[in-house]
Design a protein that fits this description.
This protein is α+β, with helices and mostly antiparallel strands. The chain contains 11 helices and 13 strands.
């Protein structure tokens, strides 16, 4: 709903997600040492691994706001608990928007009972709209997976468009499933999924104060007492489903990056370790020279090689091969012969694949980023004023 946090008078800025039955919960947060009040409150409330509801607002990050910010985050939880008949610790809170501004808590407290009264099983799109800041599209998806114990669903909503870099990004995401999963196992599945998804996207190399991904599992699709645990056949399938929705949300964030026109997928193979493949991929993805070249449809392979070389991974340039949009552009230590006009035309597509083979091993990683455009500069130059 629109509670009045955003000044435009219409945009949705407050969302509520409720599990109708008790649920286990897990979360992963930004590694930025400057953390917003909602994260500190969520850490407290998740000590028992249980949650029933999440209240989320956009338009104000409630970050770097001192004791008042902590009080406001707690008041959001208390108002939600009162409206839903829950205890405060069963409510989690997320905020996103401008850092350093005081949260209009009275408007939020007025809106929460109205929001609780309008809860709907079909409210996923509204919830996704309510957490958007500079996003241009709402982000949501769901999958069904057939387990040995029965069919379950995994869904997700997310927001994010800038200040995007591991670990994690200026993003919020909520993953929900009607499987029943012990809290520790849910934390394991979520953490593993995030490492290959949200921690593999970068827009501008900036890491925010509010990044939060919450997972909730309430068991509503399974018989009483039936659980899905990690490191089991069903646990692996459910973990893959969680990774699938996180991957879709991560790619949606990279594709919707502020001012972007292209999604760049960097596939790094032939590494000695997955961590080294990630390191190389992120080095290329964070290169402003690579990102601007993609924006300009300029097949300047030297920029890619440069970023590979300073990634900090021991490699032999003579063994590295690079493909851009399916065209081999570097091999055996030199650039290859290719038709620049043809490749430049191929780079006008909305999806730009870069494949890097390090020739050193069998491990791989996939990184998602975007081009860097004039609009990114404009949007961020005018963000506050």
């Amino acid at each position: 709903m629109h509670a009045g946090i955003k000044s435009d008078g219409a945009s949705k800025d407050l969302s509520l997600v409720l599990s109708t039955v008790p649920a286990t919960a897990a979360a992963v947060y930004t590694k930025n040492l400057v953390q917003a009040a909602p994260i500190l409150v969520d850490r407290e409330h998740l000590q028992d691994g249980i949650a029933r509801a999440v209240i989320l607002n956009s338009g104000n990050a409630n970050a770097c706001t001192g004791e008042a910010g902590m009080e406001h985050a707690r008041r959001m939880c208390a108002a939600t608990a009162a409206a839903l008949g829950l205890v405060n610790s069963d409510v989690l809170v997320c905020s996103t928007g401008l850092i350093g501004a005081t949260l209009p808590i009275e408007k939020i407290e007025t809106g929460i009972p109205l929001l609780a009264g309008s809860l709907s099983q079909h409210g996923g799109m509204d919830a996704a709209l309510g957490i958007m800041t500079t996003d241009t599209i709402p982000k949501q998806c769901a999958v069904q997976v057939e387990l040995e114990v029965g069919q379950v669903t995994v869904g997700a909503i997310a927001k994010g468009a800038a200040m995007i870099a591991p670990n994690m990004a200026t993003m919020l995401a909520l993953v929900s499933t009607d499987a029943r999963v012990p809290g520790a196992d849910l934390q394991t599945m979520l953490s593993q999924a995030i490492q290959r998804t949200f921690n593999c996207i970068t827009v501008d190399g900036d890491m925010s104060t509010n990044d939060t991904v919450i997972a909730m599992a309430n068991g509503a699709a399974l018989a009483d007492g039936v659980q899905v645990v990690a490191d089991s056949t069903d646990g692996d399938k459910l973990g893959a489903a969680i990774e699938a929705v996180c991957s879709e949300m991560a790619k949606a964030i990279a594709r919707d990056a502020e001012g972007s026109t292209k999604l760049i997928t960097i596939e790094v193979s032939g590494a000695r370790a997955e961590s080294e493949a990630r390191q190389v991929g992120l080095s290329v993805a964070n290169s402003n020279l690579v990102k601007t070249a993609v924006f300009g449809c300029d097949p300047n392979w030297g920029r890619i090689l440069c970023a590979i070389g300073y990634a900090g991974v021991d490699l032999d340039p003579e063994r590295v091969q690079v493909q851009l949009c399916g065209t081999l552009i570097y091999a055996n230590g030199v650039g290859t012969a290719f038709d620049e006009a043809t490749l430049s035309a191929a780079m006008q597509a909305a999806d730009i694949p870069i494949h890097i083979d390090l020739g050193s091993g069998s491990e791989s990683a996939q990184i998602f980023t975007c081009d860097l455009t004039y609009d990114y500069v404009r949007l961020n130059a005018e963000y506050k004023t």
